[in-house]
Q: What sequence folds into this?
């Protein structure tokens, strides 16, 4: 089998999607599958120059101009990249987004079936509409645009039932789908930690530091805990992003420098998470985050807000936070300073993760889905 992986993200982008497709490519090669990757960096030089001119012009039209630019640039950039590269005709295209999937399908004259992994949190059209605050008329056009893109893709891999429920209105009537949760392959998993010996509870959080990942909430919880006289903890924020400087200033303002440490972006964040006692995921919306799965893999107990696809990841809501404000959440997290509570949590989550997030079982299911897609084409 010859698989072409396509994505509008460049290989250096700080995204779990990049981790996904690079790991997938290596896994497929290990199974004897021939794999090629085309990403944003393959856009031809002359077309990049054209896009650079548009990049200066389109923002003059405000958020609408920015939204239109990025859709046009990413779609046409991928189309041009595939048309310009000498690629042996693949048996199947595995797209990481709708723009690259449709562009590849059209560039290869619509003769190759497309599978798309749906990495978005709700659906791509609504995410763009919300991000750029688009007015009703233009918002409706973006929905039609994504319905058109999806019409070129017949097979879908959703990483949660939640994502399917939010985006199924965009799918063509004859679409095939499968639910395959994200997984990780960590070969050197540390031995189980002793949850009863640490002098200070170490809490970790991994993610792009921005409003959606919501690390500010964890800082505020840390402040609330300290106000209650609880100071035997440290929070490790692992990642980088546009809100880091603001959150560092907040830590200084709250005099939490001894409690909160910023680690920046890490190639293997799970190695730090493995050294911590509790992982707390604060995102306001997430589909099937790798950081939670990595915490499972290194036997670090997880607490998370009940948003997006996360309730599907935690057994019987074991680890879902129920509080709706800082004080209530601090109440819940404070109970996990107990080693016994953390042990109960990690045992339940480890058993569930072993059955539902097995990397190689999921890979086998994906290859089977490839074969079904190829036979149906």
A:
């Amino acid at each position: 089998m010859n698989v072409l992986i396509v994505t509008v993200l460049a290989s250096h982008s700080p995204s779990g999607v990049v981790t996904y497709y690079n790991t997938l490519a290596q896994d497929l090669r290990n199974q004897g599958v021939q794999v090629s990757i085309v990403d944003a960096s393959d856009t031809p030089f002359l077309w990049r120059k054209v896009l650079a001119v548009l990049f200066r012009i389109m923002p003059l039209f405000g958020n609408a101009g920015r939204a239109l630019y990025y859709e046009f640039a990413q779609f046409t950039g991928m189309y041009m990249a595939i048309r310009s590269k000498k690629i042996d005709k693949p048996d199947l295209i595995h797209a990481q987004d709708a723009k690259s999937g449709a562009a590849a399908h059209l560039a290869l004259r619509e003769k190759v079936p497309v599978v798309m992994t749906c990495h978005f949190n709700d659906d791509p059209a609504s995410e763009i509409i919300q991000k750029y605050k688009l007015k009703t008329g233009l918002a409706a056009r973006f929905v039609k645009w994504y319905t058109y893109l999806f019409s070129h893709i017949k097979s879908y891999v959703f990483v949660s039932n939640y994502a399917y429920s939010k985006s199924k209105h965009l799918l063509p009537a004859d679409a095939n789908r499968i639910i395959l949760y994200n997984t990780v392959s960590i070969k050197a998993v540390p031995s189980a930690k002793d949850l009863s010996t640490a002098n200070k509870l170490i809490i970790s959080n991994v993610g792009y530091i921005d409003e959606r990942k919501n690390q500010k909430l964890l800082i505020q919880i840390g402040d609330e805990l300290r106000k209650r006289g609880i100071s035997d903890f440290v929070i490790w924020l692992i990642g980088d992003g546009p809100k880091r400087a603001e959150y560092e200033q907040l830590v200084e303002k709250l005099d939490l420098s001894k409690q909160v440490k910023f680690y920046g972006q890490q190639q293997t964040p799970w190695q730090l998470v493995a050294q911590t006692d509790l992982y707390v995921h604060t995102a306001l919306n997430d589909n099937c985050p790798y950081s939670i799965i990595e915490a499972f893999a290194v036997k670090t107990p997880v607490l998370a807000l009940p948003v997006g696809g996360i309730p599907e990841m935690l057994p019987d809501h074991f680890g879902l936070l129920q509080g709706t404000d800082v004080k209530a959440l601090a109440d819940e997290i404070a109970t996990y300073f107990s080693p016994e509570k953390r042990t109960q949590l990690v045992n339940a989550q480890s058993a569930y993760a072993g059955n539902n997030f097995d990397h190689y079982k999921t890979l086998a299911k994906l290859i089977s889905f490839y074969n079904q897609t190829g036979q149906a084409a």
About this structure: The mean pLDDT is 92. The first strand starts at residue 2 and ends at 6.
